[in-house]
Structures are given as structure tokens and as C-alpha cells.
Amino acid sequence: MDSCVFCKIARGEIPCYKVYEDDIALAFLDINPANKGHTLVLPKEHFRDMTTCPKDILSHLFSVAQLIAQAQISQLGATGINVITNVGASSGQSVMHFHIHVIPRYDNDGLELSLPPQKIGEHDLLLLADSIRKGI
Ligand code: 5GP
Ligand code: ZN
Question: What is the three-class DSSP state of 131?
Fold first, then answer.
């Protein structure tokens, strides 16, 4: 993926503030952080998003995300963490190279990452659970 910004970072063609690296994974600070220490964890190989990333790589990346989260707690004094991965433009994904946001949270940090609750009936819940189950 010649034009992909995260591939360019993985190849060392664009600089980054690196936090972690191994043969498969890379983690660096988000250039426009939502909070102090906001880190992105991604595969060096290009996959579009979580749904197309091979399972073994996916599980490795989440292990790395766990290490980052632990370090944000022990080193930055984070009191909470949001782990987010966007899939597709409708979810807000802007860089189409799979990445996991590991966002440290601090008491009263004022960051709003809310999921506004909606009312839903039992019938719809049953149908939705059934539909998703059929796809697994
Ligand atoms: P998305 O919206 O795709 O889930 O998240 C993409 C993230 O990548 C954004 O938070 C954005 O700030 C970050 N980002 C985009 N371009 C660069 C870059 O060149 N370097 C770094 N470090 N982060 C970037
Ligand atoms: Zn890429």
C-alpha cells in the first residue's frame, strides 16, 4: 500500500513517536491525541480494519494494546483506558489501515466518549441477537 500513511510510518518513511515495536506490531503516539498518551497499535502489514485482519495478528495486537494500557497506568498515572477500533468510514475510521486506539483516561479529564443509550423493545433485541448469531 504505497499511499497508506500508516504503511509509510511502518516502513520508516514518515517519523513517529514510537512506543513499542516487534516483528508484527508497531505502537506510536497519535499525532492529534484525544488525551495525554493516546497511542495507536497497528500491524506492520496492511489490513483495512479489524474484520479483515488475520486472527493470530489480531490477538497479538490486543496483547500489545494491553501492554500499552498497563504502561499508561503505571507510567502516566492513567486511572482508566478506552480501547477503540473503528471499522469503516461510517464509524469514523479515517486511516484505512487497521489500528487500535489506546486512550488513557484521568479523573475529571473532561473527555466525552459517550454512547448515548436508545430505547429498544424485547422483540427487536431477540431479532437482532438471532441475526448476529446466524452470521457467526
Ligand atoms: P481513525 O479515525 O482512523 O480511527 O484514527 C486515525 C488516527 O490516526 C487519528 O486519531 C489521527 O489523529 C491519527 N493520525 C493520522 N495521521 C497520522 C500520522 O501521520 N501520524 C500519527 N502519529 N497519527 C496520525
Ligand atoms: Zn497501510
Answer: helix
